[in-house]
Prior knowledge:
This protein is an alpha+beta fold. It is 18% helix and 31% strand.
Amino acid sequence: xxxxxxxxxxxxxxxxxxxxxxxxxxxxxxxxxxxxxxxxxxxxxxxxxxxxxxxxxxxxxxxxxxxxxxxxxxxxxxxxxxxxxxxxxxxxxxxxxxxxxxxxxxxxxxxxxxxxxxxxxxxxxxxxxxxxxxxxxxxxxxxxxxxxxxxxxxxxxxxxxxxxxxxxxxxxxxxxxxxxxxxxxxxxxxxxxxxxxxxxxxxxxxxxxxxxxxxxxxxxxxxxxxxxxxxxxxxxxxxxxxxxxxxxxxxxxxxxxxxxxxxxxxxx
Length: 268
């Protein structure tokens, strides 16, 4: 009777492993900065998406890509890898080419005028507004946290209100905000140089990571802040084990408990 009970327990544990019950696998995983792993870098991209326009009108999310910085969004500099927004040519940037995933904090981007959803004030004056920075990892991964390196300085200001910055996830391309799952919020600190914002949510499986960033902005590139500076984005997590790996682990667990039970029976 004891042997049968042990075997039943082993089978149940094996089935739990095979089904991947829970958010986190039963065995330990090595958490990596996915943006710096070769398999992710070769197939992943990020895209800047506008949420508004020069008149302060909200636009449909994830439809209008843009590049930050001069000449449309800043009085000077701020481009990502020298890419210039002409109003029609912006597209996704490879993790292998972009400034946000080059592993360096001395390459940065800034300049977000006329692309934000106005959340405070009006587009004709200094105000707070947000845009989306969407990462496509190419496949599903378990996401554990996101860390953004940034600078807040004179003329390049973030919205430093508590939890004004937000991160979301999705398994599919988020054609609307309603398809996103809230992951975590974070807070920018005024006058920080290479400061670090951490979005630390509950581990979740996702392919897309969306950073909804909120800046202090002027009416144009020469009227106050053009928004804070972003140096680097690190996305931490790990790959989902293949089904064959789950099956092997489950079978090994069943065999181990069954073998030990048999051994005890012979000993008696």
